[in-house]
């Protein structure tokens, strides 16, 4: 008897037996769940959706996949190894993308950039870059910033001048260490999106430990998951139609995120604000959101971009906002249209000892024009009441930014 394809399952209804053909993505998840306990598998849609987004005739989509070690991101990223348009690395150095080395006649250029054209670069451990020497990290970020638009040019101390044309995507696995390097990350501007894996429940952690201890052959696991991944990667990204209403939601999200993730310059010692923030113009951001929505819809084998595809892009959009700033948003939105004082925000976030930090975040959001404040006299002192502006509160509600998840962020 011929074995059934991985994308076929049978189910019974009464005395009848029906057959349902799963999508290639659903079949991959079925295989992955044999070896991984996964409660929320949306990050798998994001990984493969990003890959297909980068196969469109569109702007590159670069994304951080943020989660704790052992959270499952590495297994999924490694499953893409071996495909013709995937280039996988563990990490980068400041000489990986552009080596600066002077070649001898007939000696190949060791620089990675020209090899990436038309591919998606999978960086399994971006945390190493952030945790290494700051000068090295800045050099790598500078090279990536220059490469995003497709053309990179540099002159090295060796006297070599290089110029490469290379359009490629990036998926970078990283831990929550990224939150401690927000100023460095913000230098990349609008080039990277972010997806944060939901925090695993106690049950999920326990089940993963149990499953990991019961696996007898890592080679069999790798072969099974990689084989299922190759079927997904054979799909083609399609420029699927997006309705006007959904497109408008993407535009509103891009407007808000461009402002909400902007860095407010502060003195490193006094912590005083040094001047006005300079938010990005959201043109690249909206193009990335559109491409990602189409990539996610394509990998789900939809015929048009659907509401559920936009909902996942909303999650990505919210995750692009710095983590603590997003937590403050959720608390303020939970009380809207009523105002809160900083002590209220700190208490709701269970950060009673962090009132100074909360005050800085509130001042940043005031500088960015997202919230407003009013004086409230309290005896000999003056306190401030803080409240979100109506326009931004409305957009945040549509994006699904809820009070319930304020502390989780």
Give a verbal description of the structure:
α2 packs across α10 and α10 (283-299) packs across α11. A hairpin with a 5-residue loop joins β6 (151-155) and β7. The strands form four sheets. Strands 4-5-8-3-9 form a five-stranded parallel β-sheet. Strands 1-2 form a two-stranded antiparallel sheet. It has 409 residues and is of the alpha/beta class. It has helices at residues 24-32, 42-53, 73-78, 127-131, 134-147, 182-186, 202-214, 218-233, 244-260, 283-299, 307-319, 323-335, 342-348, 355-367, 390-398; strands at 8-13, 16-21, 62-66, 86-89, 120-123, 151-155, 161-165, 169-174, 192-196, 371-378, 381-388. Mean pLDDT is 86; it is low at 1-18 and 403-409. The chain starts with 7 loop residues before the first strand and ends in an 11-residue tail after the last helix. The protein has two domains: 23-101 and 108-245, 3-Layer(aba) Sandwich (Rossmann fold); 323-398, Winged helix-like DNA-binding domain superfamily/Winged helix DNA-binding domain (Arc Repressor Mutant, subunit A), CATH 1.10.10. The longest helix is centred in the middle third of the chain and has 17 residues, at 244-260.
């Amino acid at each position: 008897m011929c074995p059934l394809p991985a994308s076929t399952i049978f189910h019974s209804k009464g005395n009848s037996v029906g057959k349902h053909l799963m999508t290639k993505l659903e079949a991959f998840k079925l295989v992955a769940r044999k070896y991984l306990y996964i409660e929320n598998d949306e990050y798998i849609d994001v990984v493969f959706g990003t890959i297909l987004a980068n196969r469109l005739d569109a702007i590159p989509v670069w994304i951080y996949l943020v989660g704790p070690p052992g959270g499952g991101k590495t297994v999924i990223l490694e499953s893409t190894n071996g495909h013709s348009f995937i280039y996988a690395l563990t990490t980068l150095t400041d000489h990986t993308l552009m080596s600066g080395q002077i070649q001898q006649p007939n000696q190949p250029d060791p620089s990675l950039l020209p090899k990436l054209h038309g591919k998606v670069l999978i960086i399994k451990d971006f945390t190493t870059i952030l945790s290494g020497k700051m000068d090295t990290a800045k050099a790598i970020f500078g090279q990536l910033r220059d490469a995003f638009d497709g053309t990179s040019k540099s002159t090295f101390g060796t006297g070599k001048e290089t110029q490469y044309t290379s359009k490629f995507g990036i998926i970078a696995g990283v831990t929550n260490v990224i939150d401690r390097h927000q100023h460095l990350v913000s230098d990349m501007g609008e080039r990277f999106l972010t997806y944060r894996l939901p925090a695993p429940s106690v049950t999920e952690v326990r089940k993963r430990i149990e499953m990991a201890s019961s696996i007898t052959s890592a080679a069999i696991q790798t072969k099974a998951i990689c084989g299922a991944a190759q079927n997904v990667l054979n799909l083609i990204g399609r420029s699927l139609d997006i309705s006007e209403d959904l497109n408008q939601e993407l535009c509103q999200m891009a407007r808000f995120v461009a402002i909400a993730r902007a860095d407010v310059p502060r003195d490193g010692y006094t912590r005083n604000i040094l001047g006005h923030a300079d938010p990005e113009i959201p043109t690249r951001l909206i193009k990335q959101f559109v491409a990602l929505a189409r990539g996610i819809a394509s990998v789900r084998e939809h015929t048009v971009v659907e509401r559920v595809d936009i909902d996942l892009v909303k999650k990505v959009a919210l995750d692009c906002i710095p983590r603590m700033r997003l937590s403050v948003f959720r608390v303020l939105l939970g009380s809207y249209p009523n105002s809160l004082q900083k002590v209220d925000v700190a208490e709701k976030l269970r950060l009673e000892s962090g009132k100074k930090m909360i005050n800085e975040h509130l001042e940043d959001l005031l500088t960015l024009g997202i919230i407003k404040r009013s004086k409230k006299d309290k005896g000999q002192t003056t306190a401030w009441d803080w409240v979100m502006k109506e326009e931004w509160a409305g957009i945040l509600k549509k994006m699904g930014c809820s009070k319930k998840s304020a502390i989780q962020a």
